[in-house]
Amino acid sequence: MTETEQTSWENPPADYPAAIKAVKKKLRAQIGDVDALFAKIESFVRAEVEDIVRTKARGESVWPIVQYSDIENGTVPQETLDLIHRRGCAVIRGQVSEDTATGWDQSLVDYVDSNDFDKKYRGPADNFFGNLKASKPEIYPIYWSPAQMEARQHEHTARVQSFMNAQWKSESQGVTWFDPDQDAMYPDRIRRRPPGANSNGLGAHTDSGSVERWLTPAYQQVFSSIFHGDFESFDPWDAAYRTEVDEYPSSTMCSVFRSFQGWLAMSEMEHDQGVLHVVPIPAAMAYMLIRPLLSDVPEDSLCGAEEGKALGVDEKWHPLLMEAVSGIPDVKPGDSVWWHSDVIHSVEPVTDQKGWGNVIYIPAAPMCEKNAKYAANVAERFRLGESPTDFPKEDYEVEWTNRFKEEDLNEIGARGLGITREIRHSEQAATARP
Asked: Does the structure show a pLDDT above 90 at 8?
């Protein structure tokens, strides 16, 4: 097997240990003094960790806070923009009104109840739900409710996605990698965690590939500066080659480039009630990538990275990073939460949760060739009421007559699905009136 065959998306390695040994040998040769490179990265990360620890000790939020009104008016302070780049995450206050968000929450309840979902639910199709009882899911495998689609195609959502995309360098090396002002729709599920719930949470990890970050040619280009020993030139906000990456086929793969993962709150959530946490250091990915090349790591190991699973982070291999884990502040219905696609994140466990913990997952997936291809696939699943192909094929909504329909799409929704219309349905009706 050639090196190209070992590392291409179409041909995942038949022998992962051998492929890992080969790539580590190659990367060490490219880098030269691996220990010196890691020391440089570790020094940078340690300074960031110490700043995060001091910020929390002062009782301040580590997460940058942005008012939606400032996004709409173009008045987000420069210091806030700088902090977003430093932390790789943000909370947007008031993306939609509290009444709108809680209205969507109730609409979702009505949607699943009107279709007897509790009686039809077959239990988790994957291990996403942990130990929750099958009769009461926390993550609902539904995608096409009016509430979800209205949230996805809301003009405020589109404006926030554009704002978050604009934090990236979408043009570099003479290439426009994506359009920051146009998102491709990436339908995801909802979470409804009730008061009194116990949840084991979700361990620290990053998405968008695990072993792929070392083994695939596109990711080697994304992280070329690091893999050639030049940490100073590494820019985690440069989109170069990220839209060219494909993950190895698995139940956890994502078919699009997400500039940010995100969700919209439909309920009030306190900061200590099993909420999202992150390691707010985008450049920590460099630490993750070089750590397996040190001499104390077995030759066939990538510090816990495994094919077909999210890239885990733990105390054994990454103790310094774990010191920086920081939770979101309290959020209200209508607030949204965003984190960079490289940022390490987790969900804290909770016992006897106070209040609801309800969110609609909506990322930023700026339009590019890769995302447009998936959007076309999503459009077909939408018309049929089927589960999107990145998720288990459960297809609960196929026969649900009150799901969101194509004629209900506005221009934002239609463009996000790659559906073009010269004349919208409502405009046709208006033109037809005498």
From this structure: no
